[in-house]
Amino acid sequence: MNTLIVLRHAKAAHTPGLADRERPLTDRGERDAGRAGETLKQMGLCPDLVLCSPSLRTRRTAELALAGLAADAPLQLESEIYEAYPDELLELVGRTDDEVATVLLVGHNPGVHELIMSLTLSRDEDGFPPGAFAVLETGPWAGLGPGDARMLSRWNPKDH
């Protein structure tokens, strides 16, 4: 079995005149991203590969989460994660090498939330707030599709 960790970027600032891709994390976002990594470490999870949107807020979230994990997994910036639909995210994850057992995907809503709901065939009324992550158990990366994952855990920074 493989593990897919889906992490939504942490809380970002809304700065007038700043391009969406350049929005930085707020102070709370910085703290939450580090806490997400620390929580994953406490859970005994460590990614073999990080797939990350190129936006500033996702890159910083990934950086701080990896620091909290004390992990040095390779980070691949993937432009297709930005504004991606769930099927596009599935296609990206599906290209992962078979040797990779654990992937951390850092992206944006609504795509990452819809990806989780599709993979687990669940209806999620609680949403997926900034800085939240879900840990999914999956089969092989290639051909991964709706209903092919089981939710192992979920974390929301507002609850912890």
From TrEMBL:
CDD domains recorded: HP_PGM_like
Region described as Disordered: 16-38
Domain of life from the UniProt record: Bacteria
SMART domains named in the record: PGAM
Listed InterPro entries: His_Pase_superF_clade-1, His_PPase_superfam
Basic and acidic residues: compositionally biased ranges: 19-35
Record protein name field: SixA phosphatase family protein
